[in-house]
Amino acid sequence: MANGDSTEWKRPSSVPYPSIWRRFESPDKKDPQKIRKFRVQDAAEKDVQEAIIKHMTDIFLEDEPTCNSLNLKSDAESLRETQEIWRHLFTHQCALVCFEENDDGTLVTIPGTDTPYIVGCNMTFVSHKGEKNPKTKGDAISRICEAMDYVASSIDTYAHYGVNELLYAFGLSVDPAYRGMGVGMEILKARNDMGMKVSDYYKGLAN
Q1: Mind listing the pLDDT tens digit for each residue in 165-180?
Q2: What are phi and psi of 130, to 5 degrees?
Q3: Which residues touch 168 (CB under 8 Å, ≥6 apart)?
Q4: What is the rounded distance in angstroms from the CA atom of residue 11 to the CA atom of residue 26?
Q5: How far is CA 46 from CA 23, 51, 57, 71, in A?
Q6: Cα gap 123→131, rounded to integer Å
Q7: What is the reported pLDDT for 203?
């Protein structure tokens, strides 16, 4: 995992922020006759970003095998550093979030707040060739970064694709109540849609 600290890449001003990248429908798991509506968009608002951090802390860190096996959530320093990394990734304006829509088009909210409920999210960011992983002190997050470095060392992905920048992500998560409804796949499709819009590579192909 690179640190997402690229100073050369900026989201094109021609791509509105935030943008809604995808809308989809899925039958309710308990009542298949009921169709539920969702949308995937940029995670732009500060309250949404903080809700995503909470979602990732409460759900992703419990479910992701490596984070769970290293008990990252109980390692205070690793938890703090991981949350700092996530917060920094929002500055790239590429992180995605999935919301559920009510019948009137408004968003389902977190009980007792006006903040939309986090159905799922993908901590997407742009990594630049030559970037190094963030320096970490926590044992769990440091070991995770080392493992990711080891995997990445097996191939020069930038050279393979002939690019200097790549779209990466540091975690994709779906609320357990919404699993089995295709939410994760739709987030990945939205990620592809977003990537093609903000990428110079695809613009070159289009031209």
Answers
A1: 889 999 999 999 999 9
A2: 90, -5
A3: 1, 2, 4, 124, 125, 126, 127
A4: 31
A5: 22, 9, 17, 28
A6: 18
A7: 46
Distance separating alpha carbons of residues 16 and 63, to the nearest angstrom = 33
Strand partners of residue 27:
35
> What CATH number was assigned to the domain covering residues 22-206?
3.40.630.30
Pairwise CA distance, residues 109 & 82, whole Å:
26
Q: Which two tokens stand for residue 23?
A: 């809308």
Sequence-distant contacts of 78-82: CB under 8 A, at least 24 apart: 78/136, 78/138, 78/139, 78/140, 78/141, 78/142, 79/138, 80/138, 81/134, 81/136, 81/137, 81/138, 81/141, 82/138, 82/141
The per-residue pLDDT for range 116-158, each reduced to its tens digit, is 999 999 999 998 888 877 889 999 999 999 998 888 889 899 9
| Residue 204: predicted pLDDT | 41
Domain boundaries, the chain: 22-206
Tokens of 83: 């949350």
The C-alpha angle 185, 191, 196, rounded to 5 degrees, equals 135
For the record, the structure tokens of 155 come out as 């191939």
In three-state form (DSSP H/G/I as H, E/B as E, the rest C), the secondary structure along 55-71 is HHHHHHHHHCHHHHHCC
